[in-house]
Amino acid sequence: MTGADEPDRGRAHVESRTAASATATLAACSAAARDSGGLRVKPDRIRVGIVGCGDVAHRHYLPALESMADVVSVAAVADPRDGAAAAVAAAVAAWSPGTEVHREVDAMLGGGRLDAVFNLTPAPRHGAVNEAILGAGVACYSEKPLAASVAEADRLIGLADRRGLLFLSAPGSAVTNRIRWLREIARSRRYGAATLAVAHHADPGPADWDEYTGDPTPFYREGVGPVFDHGVYRLHEMTTVLGPVRRVQAMGAIALPTRRVRGGPLAGRMIEVTTQDHVLIHLEFESGALGQLLASFATHDTLAPWLEIHFEGGVVSFGGKSWEPDAPVMLFDASGDAVGDWRPAREMPHDEHGVVEAGARHFIACLLGTESPVLTAEHGRHVLDVILEAYASIADGRAHDVATTFARDLSATGGP
Prior knowledge:
The chain has helices at residues 6-34, 55-66, 84-92, 105-110, 126-135, 150-163, 177-188, 225-242, 355-368, 377-396; strands at 46-51, 72-78, 100-102, 116-119, 139-142, 167-169, 194-202, 245-253, 258-260, 270-272, 278-285, 290-296, 307-311, 314-318, 329-333, 342-344, 400-401.
């Protein structure tokens, strides 16, 4: 593990790099404004590209970008599937006309007209596509995970660093109002130090979603599964609040080996599950706090809190479903002379946008220089490391150390 002073040096490095990349991106946007070409867009809008024009693009990213249409345009899109890129171009035509349509990312990047790109391709392609985007000198926002291995993540972070490029990674959990609020509670020690985090993302997975319009098969295969797809949200939230993880131990099993697809192009078909659909992960944080995560694509439903943080003098418990904007949040105050009792956490600020949309909007705000980067690639690399070591633990039955860390300003210990 790194020394106690290394997160400070890492934070200074990240802040220096991201400030430089924001400056470079703003300069690029100014250049684009002077050469708007044939696109009928406002010359002062940031030109973004989208690689991967599937369900998540239509349901989450396009609404997020449209909500910032005064400062951003979708200049180009790419997807190898027939009609997929054209469908996104048609969907944004009312507020971002003239979107270029491509089959391949290299062709899209070769146009030289982009300030930033969202990588929404299937998870196994993220690393290669991110490398192509950064290699072309373009700022990048990657869907999770940002790479397939820690070594690949290292290379991507190094490439972005050398090129002075903004490189952020989903999920957007850390920039939602509720997680900012929770992180501030932990940092301030209002209820003492955080000692335990218990979390889950447990449902049947996308094969069971009527509203899902894509092919759910990859979600039940190696390289994705419930941890990479959904448990990653809880891991980002827990590490945002409690800081980096030191050690993991995990177990996993395939509980339901086949699934019937309910919606989308494969509706009614049976698919095979080839990776663990129940995964239990135990976490030891650098602060000494402990954590537990259930990530499952084999549970019909649950009423358990999706995130619960236990402090020395209280508890914050998030009920309902994590995607519900008005899900109940309860607080148990046992600090000082308080008589412990549950009450609604009415002081928690409301989120106007979902977690995916919040991440996309944060990336644009960083490009504009109105926000400082929070969803850093270094944080994404750390969570990737935690997940990979968890699967290694499933394979050999042993606890595994986590080698990476990330710079953070706020943690359950009140900072380094």
